[in-house]
Design brief:
This protein is mainly beta. The protein has helices at residues 6-9, 57-65, 78-85, 94-97, and strands at residues 19-24, 30-35, 38-43, 46-53, 67-73, 102-103, 112-113, 116-129, 133-145, 152-155, 160-163. The protein has one domain (6-161): Electron Transport, Fmn-binding Protein, Chain A (Pnp Oxidase, Chain A, Roll). It is 15% helix and 43% strand. The strands form three sheets. A seven-stranded antiparallel sheet has the order 2-1-5-8-9-4-3. It has a two-stranded antiparallel sheet with strand order 6-7. The model has no long low-confidence stretch (mean pLDDT 97). The structure holds flavin mononucleotide.
Length: 167
């Protein structure tokens, strides 16, 4: 076997998961960040985790507000998933700039994309310094799903966004 970087290895593990992590901005809007490094961590209690670069606006918002909704984007959002992963909410109102239509969840301040397959509403439990990223460990409050939507994945590492069956 040949040696390679962890990042290069993700070309072999494609399709990789992809999510849009939704956080609450100071004006009550939603910031959306493309995050592939998320995982379930526990079922009893229900806990998930995701890694976000230390410099990300998402991290700043989640550390401040302690709430977050991790969503799995539907097929209609393929272009926007890449756009949300190549821009920061510090400079861009991504929902408005990339024409992402949002909807409300019950008992949740953070609006999420209309075309969402699964939404995991969470509160921040703790975050861990893991190097150039923080790992956010989150208690799951509620999970929602829409089985009419087709989930997206990241292909060729993280360079292409497409459903599993079409790539
Ligand atoms: C397909 C894809 C997957 C990504 N996965 C991650 C990830 O798991 N963690 C991370 O910190 N950034 C990831 N990014 C990069 C962030 O989305 C990017 O840094 C974004 O600008 C962060 O936005 P924010 O500053 O508004 O939070 C990914 C980008 C793409 C295109």
């Amino acid at each position: 076997m040949k040696t390679l970087s962890l990042l290069d290895a993700t070309t072999f593990t494609s399709p990789n998961p992809v999510s849009l992590v939704c956080s609450l901005t100071p004006s009550g809007g939603t910031n959306l960040a493309t995050i592939s490094w998320w995982t379930c961590l526990s079922l009893k209690p229900q806990v998930i985790g995701f890694a976000s670069m230390k410099t990300s606006y998402t991290g700043e918002l989640v550390r401040a507000g302690k709430q977050v909704v991790l969503t799995i984007p539907g097929q209609a959002l393929a272009r926007q998933v890449m756009q949300c992963g190549c821009s920061t909410g510090r400079e861009t109102d991504k929902a408005s700039e990339f024409a992402i239509e949002l909807k409300k969840l019950p008992d949740c301040d953070i609006a999420i994309p209309v075309h969402t397959v699964v939404a995991i509403q969470c509160t921040l439990k703790e975050f861990v310094d893991v190097g150039d990223h923080y790992f956010y460990i989150c208690d799951v409050k509620q999970v929602y799903a829409d089985d009419t939507e087709t989930p997206l994945f990241a292909w060729q590492g993280y360079s292409r966004i497409a459903p599993a069956r079409e790539a």
